[in-house]
Amino acid sequence: GAVVSQHPSWVICKSGTSVKIECRSLDFQATTMFWYRQFPKQSLMLMATSNEGSKATYEQGVEKDKFLINHASLTLSTLTVTSAHPEDSSFYICSARTSESSTKNIQYFGAGTRLSVL
Amino acid sequence: EDKVVQSPLSLVVHEGDTVTLNCSYEVTNFRSLLWYKQEKKAPTFLFMLTSSGIEKKSGRLSSILDKKELSSILNITATQTGDSAIYLCAVAGSARQLTFGSGTQLTVLP
Fold first, then answer.
1. Do A41 and B105 touch (CB under 8 A)?
2. Phi/psi class of residue B66: alpha, beta or left (left: φ > 0; alpha: ψ in -120 to 50)?
3. Is A94 in contact with A77 (CB distance < 8 Å)?
4. What per-residue confidence (pLDDT) applies to B97?
5. For A78-93, what is each residue's pLDDT tens digit?
6. What does the pLDDT look like over B7-63, one tens digit per residue?
7. Do A43 and B96 touch (CB under 8 A)?
8. A-chain residue closest to B105, CA distance
9. A63: which residues sit within 8 A by CB, 6+ positions away?
């Protein structure tokens, strides 16, 4: 199956610093990647849709200047949490669609990144 | 706004029991419904359903979609402790994004 790698798996940072999270499709090209946020015991909340070579589409209520998304190649999307604060602490998960799965809307997920802001 | 509701929110059973998880949805221009299993980290894909009445089966897991009732069920027979996880239901609509339900936390006791 399609493999999505996400790095780092866990990061602790001081308040005010920026954190970059990488999402890579290892064995396929992904024109579209998605970034989700998940709070404890809650479901996945879509933050933004990342399209290769164009600007990301953010969901309502998600600050685009706070959560910078770059999808520079068909295998890599990055999410940068800028000037992180404790309320940004969460589990961030990326996903990707293959060109085949796009017609079926199947998304394959990375392992997630646990962000803790002190 | 698309909406997905899962029930029950949590379920505790013993090994060998059979469980049924429910998912109902409201979505504009339904395309597909997907089930995922989330253990500690990333959700892993289980099934994708697009047509009513056609059961998808994988081992002890099976799922079926009822488009008339706007719902789906996920059955797990002869449960094992390894089935303990959060089971997520998601629906793809006209925007081709996935809207997730809150999940069902399944705990299988030995």
1. yes
2. beta
3. yes
4. 84
5. 999 999 999 999 999 9
6. 999 999 999 999 999 999 999 889 899 999 998 778 999 999 998 888 999 999 999
7. no
8. A41
9. none
Cα(A118)–Cα(B91) distance, rounded to whole angstroms?
35
* Contact state of B102 with A107 under an 8 Å Cβ cutoff: no
Residue type at position B62: S
User: Chain B contact for A106, CB < 8 A?
Assistant: yes
The owner of tokens 């719902």 is B71
Q: What is the band of A61 on the pLDDT scale with cuts at 50, 70, 90?
A: very high
Residues 6 or more apart whose CB falls under 8 angstroms from that of B44 comprise: A109, B36, B37, B38
Please give the residue of chain A at the shortest CA–CA distance from B88.
A43
Contact predicate B27/B91, CB 8 Å: yes
Q: For residue A18, what pLDDT is reported?
A: 96
**CB-based contact A71:A63 (threshold 8 Å):** no
If you search the block for the tokens 């999307």, which residue do you land on?
A77
pLDDT digits (tens, 9 = 90+) for A107-117: 999 999 999 99
**3-state secondary structure at position A101:** helix
Question: What is the spatial distance between Cα B52 and Cα A115, in angstroms, rounded to a whole number?
Answer: 40
Predicted local distance difference test score (pLDDT) of residue A99: 65
